[in-house]
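Lab notebook, bench 4. Still working through the backlog of constructs that have no structural model yet. Next entry is a single chain of 454 residues. Request: give me the C-alpha cells for it.
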Amino acid sequence: DCRKIKCSGMCDILKVDEGKMTVTCEPLVNMGHLTRVLLPRGFALKIQIEMEDITIGGLSMGLGMETNSHRFGLIQECIRSYDLVLSNGELVHCTRDNEHKDIFGCLAWSCGTLGFLVAVEVDLVRVKPYIRARYLPCFSQEEHCQKMKELSLLPEGQTPQYLESTVYSRDKAVIQACDFVDITWWQWLTEVNSVNLWYKPYYYKWVETAFGRTNARTGEAGFEEILPIKHYYHRYTRSIFWELNDLIPFGNSPLYRYFFGWLGAPKVAFLKIFMTKAIRESVVTKHVVQDIIVPVDSMQEGLQLFHDEMDLYPLLVFPIRIYDHGSTQGFLRAPRRVDGVDGPEGQHPGKQWGMYVDLGAYGVPQAVRDKKHWDFEKALLRMEQWTRDQGGYQCFYTDFLLTRDEYREMFDHSNYDKLRERTGAKEAFPEVYDKVRPELAVCDRNGKAKTKAN
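Model written out:
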C-alpha cells in the first residue's frame, strides 16, 4: 500500500547561516529565489547556477556547474549535508564524514533513486555587487584550448574567479574571465553594463562583438566592462543560452527587444507540455542538446569532434575540477590524471583533483539548416564512444543513445548498487538509468544489434 505525499510546497529557504557560510533549502527552491535572498546580504551559492528556474534539489541530486567550477568543482562538492527519507520511511542526515557518508557520496547524479530529498545544506561564498569581465578573442583552436587550460590551472588568487568560453566557429572563440571589483560612482555611470535589461542584446551576441574590438586599457584584442553580479549570474536566462534564436528568430532585433523583450523567454517546462511525440522525436533527430565532461587535455579533440559531427555554433566551454574522494567517490571515477591538490584553504584540503571541461552543444546542426540529411545516430554514437574512451561523462539530461551497459561503463555504479540493496531502494525506486533515459523508441538501443559509430 502507498500513500501519496504532496511535495509541491517544499519550496522554502529554511536557514541562512552566515557563521557557517551555508544556506539550508527545501528541494524546490530555485536559483532565482536564492539570488533574490542572498545577493542583498552579500552572499551567493558557491556554485551559483545561471538558469533561474533550476531547483536546488535537481542540482544537488543531479549535477550543476558554473563558471567558477574550475575552482570549486561541480555543485556536489559544495553540499554540506542532505536530509533524505529512505524507502523504509527513515529520515537520515548525510554528511561527508558521518555514519551516512557512503550515501552522501552517491546522491549526486542519482536523480532521486536512493530516497526522497527533503532538505539540503549548501556552501555560500561572499560576493561583491560587481565583477569586471574581460573578453579575450581567440582565432584558432590551439590558441583557445591552450589559454583555457593555462587560465584554469593558475593558482587560487591568480586564476579568474569566473571562467568560461563561447565558441563561435571552428577557429573563433571568446574567453570570458571575470573577477570581483570595487567601483566608484563614476564607473557606475560610465562602465557598468546591466546585460540582463530587457532591451539589451543577448549576452552571447554581445560577447561576440569582442572579435572586432580593442581593449582601450591594454591595447589588446577584445574589451572589458563591469557587470552587476546578479546580471552575470543569470546572463543566459533571456536567451536560454542561444536556443531562443531558433524559437523566436527575430528575438534579438532592437525593435523586438525594446517593445517585447520584457515578456522574457518562454518557460521550457511550459513548452514541453505541448510537445507531441512527433515534435519530441524531431527534437532528438534534428536538434542537439548535449553536454559532455572530459579531461582538459581532450578539449581540442572534442571541439573538432563536435565540428565534424554536428557543425553547430555557438558552443559552451566550462572548466571543471573533478575530485578524488577515495572510497566514497560515487558515480564519477577518480580523475585519470592529477592536475592539483587542494591546499589548507581549498574546497577539500588535501584532496587531489583533475581539470576537466564541459563542452555544451545546443541547437540545430548546419546540415539540418541546409535541409540535408544529418545522421543523428552516427553523430551521437561517435560522441558517446569518444567520451567513454576519454574517461569522460555525458550529462544525463541530454538525449543519449547509451545502452544500460554503456551507461554503467561510463559511470561507476559499484557503491550505488550496494546502497540500493542495503537501503531497500532497489525495490522502491527505479534504477537511475531507467529514470533518465530518453523515452523515445528512436533512442532505445537496448537488446538491439550493436550499431557502429563509424
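Notes after review: The radius of gyration is 22 Å. The mean pLDDT is 93. Flag for follow-up if needed.
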